[in-house]
């Protein structure tokens, strides 16, 4: 916990004029722990071009997120503002500057990924555009099972380098990686297990497709798209990753506001 007074800066996860998927949360990250969360939250606002129910939730003492109760409506414009300049944030600390960003929500796209049927369906505007065979985290191994719940695309990499010494691999390059978290939430191409796709779950938690199918999904995916995983037997929770916004039901999300 920070005790010395000083300026506290903030940053957004959203970029001005960018376009995001319908599950995109807004994150405000502070440079130091916020002692007076209520004061910080009162300085934050979200305006939408279409009336949208949503709210702030603190995920830890440096990060607060805003998400809609349901997915965003496609095509809407969202403006987030943080009027933090010289706002007392507790312990003598003051907000360092004001921030604002306006972004757009793109088309309605999502993934339905079922670990029990080993299928990976891509849905756009209510219509299935792809149905791929897939392999998920190993069944019966809680540490490796793909978490069931709503994950959110955070970045795309044409080539990703994966390491997990616990499971005996380091610096393994994989193609067409779409990341949803930093701890195994990943869709990628894996030619080595082509025979298992659509049949068995053999990964260490990521979702594997054939390289050709992974490329098609890579081209389709957008940051902020939801990936709805079912059938794994282990649910996504706040303990799994900071990007767990949709793991909370609405009353639990609201309870994390400092103003309730």
From TrEMBL:
The keyword Ubl conjugation does not apply. Residues 109-230 form the L,D-TPase catalytic domain. Pathway: Cell wall biogenesis; peptidoglycan biosynthesis. The keyword DNA-binding does not apply. PROSITE patterns: LD_TPASE. It comes from the Bacteria. GO terms for biological process: cell wall organization; peptidoglycan-protein cross-linking; regulation of cell shape. Keywords: Acyltransferase, Cell shape, Cell wall biogenesis/degradation, Peptidoglycan synthesis, Transferase. One of its GO terms (molecular function) is acyltransferase activity. InterPro entries: Big_10 (IPR041280), LD-transpeptidase (IPR050979), LD_TPept_cat_dom (IPR005490), Transpep_catalytic_dom (IPR038063). One of its GO terms (cellular component) is extracellular region. This is L,D-transpeptidase. It comes from Solihabitans fulvus.
């Amino acid at each position: 916990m920070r005790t010395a007074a000083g300026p506290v800066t903030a940053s957004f996860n959203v970029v001005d004029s960018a376009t995001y998927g319908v599950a995109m949360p807004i994150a405000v990250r502070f440079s130091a722990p916020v002692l007076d969360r209520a004061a910080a939250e009162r300085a934050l606002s979200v305006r939408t071009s279409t009336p949208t129910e949503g709210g702030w939730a603190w995920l830890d003492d440096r990060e607060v997120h805003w998400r809609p109760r349901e997915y965003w409506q496609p095509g809407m414009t969202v403006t987030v503002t943080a009027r933090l300049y010289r706002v007392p944030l507790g312990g003598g600390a003051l907000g360092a500057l004001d921030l604002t960003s306006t972004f757009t929500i793109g088309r309605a796209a999502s993934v339905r990924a079922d670990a029990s049927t080993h299928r990976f369906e891509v849905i756009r505007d209510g219509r299935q555009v792809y149905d791929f065979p897939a392999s998920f985290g190993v069944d019966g191994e809680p540490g490796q099972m793909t978490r069931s719940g709503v994950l959110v695309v955070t970045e795309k990499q044409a080539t990703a380098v994966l390491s997990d010494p616990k499971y005996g691999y380091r610096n393994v390059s994989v193609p067409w990686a779409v990341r949803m978290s930093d701890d195994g939430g990943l869709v990628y191409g894996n030619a080595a297990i082509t025979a298992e796709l659509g049949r068995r779950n053999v990964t260490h938690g990521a979702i594997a497709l054939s390289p050709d199918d992974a490329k098609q999904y890579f081209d389709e995916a957008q940051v902020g798209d939801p990936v709805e995983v079912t059938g794994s037997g282990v649910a996504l929770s706040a303990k799994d990753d900071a990007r767990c916004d949709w793991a909370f039901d609405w009353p639990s999300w609201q309870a994390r506001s400092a103003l309730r």
